[in-house]
Amino acid sequence: MSLSDTIVQYILSGLTIGSIYALVALGYNIIYNTTGIINFAQGEFLMLGGMFMAACCNIYHLPLPIGALISIGLVVIIGLLIERIAIRPVKDANIVTLIIITIGVSIFIKACAAFVTKDSFTFQSFPGPDYIKVSTATLSVQSLWIMGVACIIMICLSIFFRRTVMGKAMRACSINREAAHIVGIDVDRMSLLSFGLSALMGAVAGIMVTPTTQISWNRGTELGLKGFCAVILGGLGSGPGAILGGISLGLLETFGNIVFSGYKDAIAFSILLIVLYLRPQGIIGRG
Amino acid sequence: MKSQAIRYTVLLAVIIILPFFFKNELSYYLAILSIAGIYAIAVIGLNLLMGYAGQISLGHAAFFAAGAYTSAILTTQFSISPLLSLLPAIMVSGGLAFLIGIPTLKLKEHYLAMATLGIGLIIHAILRANPFDITGGPGGIPNIPPLNFLGLVTDNDITQYYFIWALTFIIFILSNNLVNSRFGRALLAIHKSEVVTNVLGVNTYRCKLKTFVLSAVYAGFAGYLYAHSSPLFYVNPDDVCHFVFSIKLVTMVVVGGMNTMWGALLGAVSLAVLPELLRVLGSFSPSLNTSDLEMALYGIILILVMIFTQSQKIKQALSHLIIKERNAPVV
């Protein structure tokens, strides 16, 4: 392979993992915008999505679309339960309290998953030929699925937030929660909805990423944190920022891995720290 | 003031007589109690940050590891005496915190939480990757010498126990004095309202930065003691720098009750003993994985303690109960 082919190849794999980060980042932003909480359990939604999907495919041998629907449904229910049980009773508490609670939720889910199994799982890739040629580089169909699904979800979210009454109500909460309450928006319901929606994003990301990398009980935290790096890189609370942050983080990480191999995980967090130093509001942050 | 002195005396008495309760397997229990003392030092430091300044660090294990590894590397590979490696150890921890604190403490609490979590994972990755062949990779560094302070060598369990707890006791008293000083009151004020504290003439940013660095120094000192203590005399990335260890420290602070130093001490000791209790439980059913159970318990403890101490509804219900009791007829 020539140099340009290698570069194309790296760009493609950077875009693939970047799309996953972008989905996770959007999940963080949905909850943050509606409730002001950074949900440290976001990565666990991803892990649960992948694990449920692996169970559906490997143990119950369900077809992919049905398995995906069931897993997404289960993760959304878990997301809603978290909001009702752990977040609702303390919704007005200070930030440190809320951080501690979501951390508690995160390690509790992780420990439960570890109780069930500590193996890594995967399932068959999504339908289509195995590889597609893009100029001279090869692109796995799973990557294509990941990028395609991420695009569709982003478009749907954008329509939801701009065109529907409920989406507009959630945006109103993010601008000013008290004012939203005064004009008659049920802020508690929006908070519940944001956890459900965010769990959905996490579950989809988990299902998409599993065939490429495998999933196990402890992978959620790592991918969740990378997603958070993407959030900071793009700008906390910004939708386009999450997408841009996710894609750029994916690319930076893939190319950074050539230079600093063996420190792949350190790259994302070093970027996080550098962004906090130089531009804490992120690329498209509101300052 | 007088009651404080009595409490200190009781604590000191408990520390002194505790080893006499264990007739069998004395060294085993002494090792656990020594570790509990080491945790207590780190937890007292983290409590300054969480309970008093109202900030949160989710990567305190990184500072613990910085202290432990610095001293371990200096003493094993450069044959420096443990007494001389103390200063570099706590300086590396404090310096690391200073570098992270400068950008993040200007921002909201989320940022410090995430940045510390990130630094925990970076340090863990670096220690495992074994740069320049000095950290020993995933295997860590074995054969670290025991502490040697001016002829006092902590090479047996009982000396080590008394040495560590003497230090813990001194640090405990100093920290208690610190939080009752002007500085401690400023921190509590920041916790209540940063804006008001700023208006009152306290440089809140510098206060938070000082506290963060100080809490990292505590953790670094605890890590330093850990590296040089029995039965292991050994550090490895998964023991001293794991994410779960950071969460364990946070849970210790939370379980004892934030913003009380006595709570920090109790929290550290009770959770240091918890794995031993779980091991007893695990001996009844061999299939039970006690380390997973421990992690699940941390999660439940964090959620429940926070809900029960912070929920407005529960607070109202409790105050209602207490008032009812007060108004109830005496007979």
Features:
heterodimer; A: 287 residues; mainly alpha; ABC transporter involved in vitamin B12 uptake, BtuC; 2 strands; 75% helix; globular; B: 331 residues; two-stranded antiparallel ribbon
How many domain regions of chain A?
1
Structural class of chain B: mainly alpha
Helix-strand pattern of chain A: HHHHEEHHHHHHH
How many DSSP E strands of chain B?
A: 2
- Residues in helices of chain A, as a percent range: over 70%
Give the N-to-C terminal Cα separation of chain A: 44 Å
Question: Can you tell me the number of structural domains of chain B?
Answer: 1
Major β-sheet annotation of chain A: 2 strands, antiparallel
Task: Please describe what this structure looks like.
The complex is a heterodimer of chains A (287) and B (331). Chain A has a single domain (3-278), classed as ABC transporter involved in vitamin B12 uptake, BtuC, CATH 1.10.3470. Helices cover 75% and strands 3% of the residues of chain A. Chain A contains eleven helices and two strands. In chain A, a hairpin with a 2-residue loop joins β1 and β2 (137-140). In chain A, α5 runs antiparallel to α8 (187-213). The longest helix of chain A has 33 residues, at 3-35. The radius of gyration of chain A is 19 Å and the shape is globular. With 331 residues, chain B is mainly alpha-helical. Chain B has 14 helices and two strands, in the order αααααββααααααααα. A two-stranded antiparallel ribbon of chain B has the order 1-2. The radius of gyration of chain B is 21 Å and the shape is globular. The chains are: A mainly alpha (287), B mainly alpha (331). At the A-B interface, α4, α9 and α11 of A face α4, α5, α11, α13 and α14 of B.
How are the SSEs placed, and which strands pair?
The complex is a heterodimer of chains A (287) and B (331).
Chain A lengths: L2 H33 L6 H17 L5 H24 L7 H22 L14 E4 L2 E4 H23 L1 H11 L1 H6 L4 H27 L5 H16 L4 H21 L4 H15 L9
Antiparallel strand pairs in A: 1-2
Chain B lengths: L1 H16 L8 H27 L7 H18 L4 H23 L4 H21 L18 E2 L2 E2 L3 H23 L2 H11 L1 H6 L4 H24 L9 H4 L2 H14 L4 H24 L5 H21 L1 H16 L4
Antiparallel strand pairs in B: 1-2
